[in-house]
Amino acid sequence: MLATMLVDIDHLVANPIFQANRCSINFHPLHTYYAMLVYFALLFLRKPFNIIGTGLLFHMLTDFTDCLMMSVS
């Protein structure tokens, strides 16, 4: 599940690479809603794909939570 953090490699194609108040959901290619549908589909496959899908969806959930906390403050 820790290996699913490699999904953040798509942050390297952004310009600038880091921006403090940028929400990564639907901004970076591997953080789009279409990619999340693929991650959801992975849940219905055999191991290790369902574990990878679970990790990726948890990653998207934490990024979404980060976006919510940025919009509140």
Task: Summarize this entry quickly.
By secondary structure, the protein is mostly helical. It has helices spanning 33-42, 49-72.
How would you describe this structure to a colleague?
This protein is mainly α and 73 residues long. The chain has 2 helices and no strands. Helix 1 runs antiparallel to helix 2 (49-72). The protein starts with 32 loop residues before the first helix and ends with a helix. The mean pLDDT is 92.
What is the distance, rounded to the nearest whole angstrom, between the alpha carbons of the first and last residues? Answer: 30 Å
Global geometry: globular
For the sheet with most strands, the description reads: none
Tally the beta strands. 0
* Count of alpha and pi helical runs: 2
- Based on secondary structure, the structural category is mainly alpha
Please report which band the strand proportion falls in: under 5%, 5-15%, 15-25%, 25-35%, 35-45% or over 45%.
under 5%
The mean pLDDT is 92
Give Rg in angstroms: 13 Å
Helix content: 40-55%
Which residues form runs of ≥5 with pLDDT under 50?
A: none
- How do the helices and strands follow one another from N- to C-terminus? HH
